[in-house]
Design goal:
Helix content is 22%, strand content 20%. The protein is α+β, with helices and mostly antiparallel strands and 157 residues long. It has one domain: Alpha-Beta Complex (endopeptidase fold (from Nostoc punctiforme)). Strands 3-8-4-5-6-7 form a 6-stranded antiparallel sheet.
Length: 157
């Protein structure tokens, strides 16, 4: 089973309503989305750690995404998948681009797991199962059935 991101097991995360468009977190430059992909690939095989937010100590899913975004843009994201979803712009599944964020319902609550989309139906994430950052396919039965949506940090236009 894939663990929630920085939510105490057994607790329920409070869903944060989507803020007005102006409050969305956005990368300062569109070409930084490619950097998100490259930096995230450098984390492959990094160990999993619940609540982890740096590669030396281990990462959980939202910790991995937050770490990558901060390394690339200097912006800090919340260390919670549902809060990150609430602060980023929704994207239609057909319009997902490399560097966008993908979300999953893995613990019977929305936005309980996340990763970074790489392109070609693949994403990178930090699951608790098998304990390392790894690649997966969006179309795999497990993730296809739990897909909660995609969000973007990329500027419009």
């Amino acid at each position: 089973m894939i663990s929630a991101c920085s939510v105490i097991p057994g607790s329920t995360a409070t869903w944060v309503p989507t803020p007005p468009r102006a409050a969305f977190i956005v990368l300062p430059e569109a070409d930084l989305a490619e950097e998100l992909v490259l930096v995230s690939l450098g984390l492959l095989d990094t160990g999993y750690r619940f609540g982890g937010s740096n590669p030396d100590a281990g990462l959980d899913c939202s910790g991995m995404v937050s770490y990558v975004v901060e390394q690339v843009s200097g912006q800090r994201l919340p260390h919670n998948a549902a809060e990150i979803a609430a602060r980023t712009r929704p994207v239609d599944r057909a319009a997902i681009r490399p560097g966008d964020l993908v979300f999953f319902n893995t613990q019977n609550r929305p936005y309980s797991h996340m990763g970074i989309y790489l392109g070609d139906d693949r994403f990178i994430h930090a699951p608790s199962s098998r304990g390392k950052v790894r690649l997966e396919r969006l179309g795999s039965p497990y993730f296809r059935d739990r897909f909660d949506g995609a969000r973007s940090l990329q500027p419009l236009g």
